[in-house]
């Protein structure tokens, strides 16, 4: 059992597992009587962010929405609180890694390689189930909350060792439930996974998230981000123009899946799927029964990615054995040689004194007292 590095209320913080512009997420545990222990993730608002009233309102809104969202494909919120002057969210801990980390786990110098198509479709179906639930979730007035996540991307998809996928981080989500409305022209989200209208600062709705799901599926099939560039400005400019059709045509997947992607990635929101449910139905038609096959393939990919790489130290040691080299004498060997030389010198000196004494005796001259 790892020792906690600090305590935040009733939660023992073990280590940091992620950090963004507003908050840091920690792996923690909740302990109780009789050896009870539960792993949790604790999201703590950073000190400078806590001084910003708008950011605090967003954090509270995230907690309010998270308390409503209860779904197998959404990383749930357990508690919102304040301890030692710091706001925090206690959330479900997913034992695995984010989708973005999985896509980055490849040998150094090797070309990017995507996931097995079945695994990619399985993860996509999990994201769509989460979005369909959030979009249809009724509010206090009984009307759908029409949640728009606005930040669907590999970084916000968590994968556990069993092959389950969970959407997380509704921190910048919007909808009828949010206390603070987003100003027109203000862009929030990851530029590399934005729909054209979002990157241009225009109005967003549930179809904006479906575009981001399409880009996430492209990333899974290729192993690399849909748009590249030297800075966020260049990437955002490319995102505003949409993903070129030839990029989809070049994917290594069935034509049926390509057709689904082309509709999800349509420039005009009206040409996309109308809802996450509609997207999901088209996906399962193009790739029947992705759940079991995809889950097994995803779990295998995670198991490989979570394995510890070979120790560099061990490899160096083997090389040293295989390649002979001149060795300097050890300190202990040098000390032994010096001791032997000293004894030899003492014996030589004693012998010389004996010879001198013998010569004086023969000459009848006594040694001085």
List the defining traits of the structure above:
9 strands, globular, alpha+beta, 369 residues, Phosphorylase Kinase, domain 1, 3 domains, 6-stranded antiparallel β-sheet, disordered C terminus, Transferase(Phosphotransferase), domain 1, 3-stranded antiparallel β-sheet
Distance between the termini: 77 Å
Rg over alpha carbons: 33 Å
Please provide the count of β strands: 9
Let me know the CATH homologous superfamily of the largest domain: Transferase(Phosphotransferase) domain 1
Give the strand order of the largest sheet, numbering strands 1, 2, ... along the chain. 1-2-3-4-6-5
Classify the beta-strand content into a percent band.
Answer: 5-15%
The stretches of 5 or more residues where confidence is low (pLDDT under 50) are: 182-186, 310-340, 365-369
At CATH level 3, the topology of the largest domain is Transferase(Phosphotransferase), domain 1
How many strands, what sense, and barrel or not for the largest sheet?
Answer: 6 strands, antiparallel
Mean pLDDT, nearest integer? 82
Helix share bin: 40-55%
Order of helices and strands: EEEEHHEEEHHEEHHHHHHHHH
Q: What's the number of domains?
A: 3
The second-level CATH architecture of the largest domain is Orthogonal Bundle
Number of helices: 13
Structural class, by secondary structure, is alpha+beta
The shape is: globular
- The CATH class label of the largest domain is Mainly Alpha
């Amino acid at each position: 059992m790892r020792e906690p590095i600090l305590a935040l209320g009733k939660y023992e913080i073990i280590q940091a597992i992620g950090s963004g512009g507003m908050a840091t997420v920690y792996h923690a545990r909740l302990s109780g009587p009789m050896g009870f222990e539960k792993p949790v993730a604790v999201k703590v608002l950073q000190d400078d962010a806590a001084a910003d009233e708008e950011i605090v309102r967003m954090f509270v809104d995230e907690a309010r929405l998270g308390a409503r969202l209860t779904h197998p494909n959404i990383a749930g919120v357990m508690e919102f609180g304040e301890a030692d002057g710091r706001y925090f969210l206690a959330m479900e801990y997913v034992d695995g890694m984010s989708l973005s980390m999985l896509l980055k786990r490849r040998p150094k110098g090797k070309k990017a390689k995507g996931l097995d198509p079945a695994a990619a479709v399985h993860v996509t179906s999990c994201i769509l189930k989460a979005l369909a639930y959030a979009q249809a979730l009724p509010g206090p007035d009984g009307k759908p909350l029409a949640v728009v996540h606005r930040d669907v991307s590999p970084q916000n998809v968590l994968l556990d060792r069993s092959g389950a996928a969970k959407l997380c981080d509704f921190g910048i989500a919007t909808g009828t439930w949010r206390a603070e409305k987003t100003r027109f022209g203000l862009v929030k989200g990851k530029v590399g996974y934005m729909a054209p209208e979002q990157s241009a600062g225009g109005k967003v709705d549930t179809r904006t998230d479906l575009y981001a799901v399409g880009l996430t599926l492209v990333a899974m099939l290729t192993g690399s981000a849909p748009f590249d560039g030297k800075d966020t400005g260049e990437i955002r400019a490319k995102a505003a123009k949409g993903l070129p059709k030839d990029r989809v045509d070049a994917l290594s997947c069935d034509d049926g899946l390509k057709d689904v992607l082309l509709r999800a990635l349509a420039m005009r929101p009206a040409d996309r799927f109308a809802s996450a449910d509609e997207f999901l139905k088209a996906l399962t038609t193009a790739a029947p029964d992705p759940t079991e096959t995809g889950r097994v393939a995803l779990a295998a990919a995670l198991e490989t990615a979570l394995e510890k790489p070979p120790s560099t130290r061990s490899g160096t040691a083997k090389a040293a054995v295989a390649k002979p080299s001149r060795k300097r004498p050890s300190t202990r060997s040098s000390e032994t040689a010096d001791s032997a030389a000293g004894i030899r010198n003492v014996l030589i000196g004693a012998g010389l004194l004996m010879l001198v004494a013998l010569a004086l005796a023969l000459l009848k001259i006594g040694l001085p007292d």
